[in-house]
Design brief:
Structural class: alpha/beta
Helix content: 25-40%
Largest sheet: 6 strands, parallel
Distance between the termini: 34 Å
Number of domains: 2
Strand order of the largest sheet: 11-10-9-12-13-14
Strand content: 15-25%
Radius of gyration: 23 Å
Oligomer: single chain
Number of strands: 14
Shape: elongated
C-alpha cells in the first residue's frame, strides 16, 4: 500500500486562514541539483506579507514575496526561476549557496480560485485515504498557468509544460487504546499531517475532544476488524494498558494481513505473556510486531515516549533501519 510521508499539502490546508484573505500559492514545479524542497512542495504567501510553509531555508521567501505581490495586483500567474549555483547566485541577491536551480509557479489562490478548488479536492481525497493527482501548468502559450485537479477540463492549445503530481495518501495510524498516554501519540502523528484513528472500549476514554483531528470510536477490541478497515491503515499501536484488551487487539491484527507494522507498548515480559496467551496465533504477527514499541531515545515522559513511537513508525514507513526501544 503506497504512502506519502511529505504531508505539506495537508498541513498547508489545515493552517490556511479560513477568511477570504487574498493569497498566492507558490509551488515548486522543477528542480536540479541541491535544493531545500523538491517538486510538489508548496507555500502560501498572504496579502499582509506573512506566509505559511517554506520552499527554502528562508533565503528565497523575501524575493518570492515581491513576485507574489505582483501576482496579487495583476491576478496573472507566473513562473520564476532561481539559480543558486556558484557566482550566478549573486544575480539574485539571495546568497543561498544551495548549488541548485528551482522553478516556482505563483498563482492567485483566494476563494473559488482554480488553485483553491484543486487543492481542496486533493485534500478531500487525502482525508478519505485515497490518492489524487494535481497538474501544475507552468509554461504555455494560450493555456492559463496554474494548478488543475485531474478532473478539471484543460483545453490545451499549443505546447505547454506541466508538472503532474500523483499524491498518495498520508500515513494512517491506528491507536488501539485511548488511555491518557495515547493523547501525545495521536497529537504527534497529527502534527505530521497523518490520519489517526483511535479505538477503545471505554466511553470515558474514547472522547473526541481528547484527540483533536483524529477519528475516535468506542468499540469492543474483539470487533476491531469489523469496526476499522485495517487494509487502509499503515501502522497500528496497541496501548490500552488492559491485558485482555491488548490480547484481543493483537488477535484481531494477527488475523488480518494489515497493517504491516504493529507496535506493542510495554516491557518485554508483558510481550512474552501476551505471546503465550495468543499461542500459535502470534506467528501471524511474525515480522510485523514491534515491542517494546518505539526508538531507544531514552524516553521517560509520555511526550517523549510518543516521539519515540511515531519516530519509529516514520523510519519504518521510510524503509530506514532503526533500533528497538529497550525496556525492562
Amino acid at each position: 500500500m503506497s504512502v506519502r510521508l511529505d504531508t505539506s499539502l495537508e498541513l498547508l490546508l489545515e493552517r490556511a486562514p479560513k477568511a477570504s484573505e487574498r493569497r498566492v500559492l507558490a509551488t515548486v514545479v522543477a528542480t536540479a541539483g541541491s535544493t531545500y524542497r523538491k517538486p510538489g512542495a508548496r507555500m502560501l504567501l498572504m496579502d499582509d506579507g506573512s506566509y505559511i510553509g517554506l520552499l527554502s531555508g528562508g533565503c528565497l521567501e523575501s524575493d518570492l514575496q515581491i513576485h507574489a505581490r505582483e501576482v496579487l495586483d495583476s491576478g496573472v500567474p507566473r513562473a520564476v526561476e532561481y539559480d543558486t549555483r556558484g557566482p550566478d547566485d549573486i544575480l539574485f541577491g539571495v546568497g543561498a549557496g544551495c548549488e541548485g536551480t528551482m522553478r516556482i509557479l505563483l498563482e492567485p489562490a483566494g476563494p473559488k480560485s482554480r488553485a483553491e478548488i484543486a487543492l481542496n479536492a486533493a485534500g478531500r481525497a487525502s482525508q478519505r485515504g485515497d490518492s489524487a493527482s494535481l497538474i501544475m501548468v507552468h509554461h504555455a502559450g494560450q493555456l492559463p498557468l496554474g494548478t488543475y485537479a485531474a478532473d478539471q477540463a484543460i483545453d490545451a492549445m499549443g505546447r505547454a509544460k506541466a508538472f503532474v503530481q500523483v499524491i498518495a495518501p498520508p500515513p494512517h495510524l491506528l491507536i488501539c487504546g485511548a488511555a491518557p498516554d495515547a493523547q501525545p501519540v495521536a497529537g504527534t502523528a497529527r502534527a505530521l499531517g497523518w490520519r489517526v484513528t483511535v479505538v477503545d472500549h471505554r466511553p470515558s476514554y474514547a472522547l473526541t475532544d481528547r484527540f483533536a483531528g483524529a477519528e475516535v470510536r468506542v468499540a469492543n477490541p474483539k470487533d476491531l476488524r469489523a469496526e476499522v478497515d485495517l487494509s487502509r491503515c499503515h501502522a497500528a499501536v496497541v496501548m490500552s494498558h488492559h491485558l485482555p484488551s491488548d490480547e484481543a487487539y493483537l488477535r484481531e491484527l494477527a488475523e488480518s494481513n494489515s497493517p504491516a507494522y504493529v507496535g506493542l507498548l510495554g516491557p518485554k515480559a508483558r510481550r512474552a505473556r501476551l505471546a503465550q496467551e495468543l499461542g500459535p496465533v502470534i506467528e501471524k504477527l511474525s515480522g510485523r510486531l514491534h515491542g517494546p514499541v518505539g526508538l531507544d531515545i531514552g524516553a521517560t515522559t509520555p511526550e517523549a515516549i510518543a516521539l519515540a513511537i511515531v519516530s519509529q513508525i516514520h523510519a519504518w514507513l521510510a524503509d530506514r533501519g532503526f533500533s528497538e526501544a529497550v525496556l525492562s
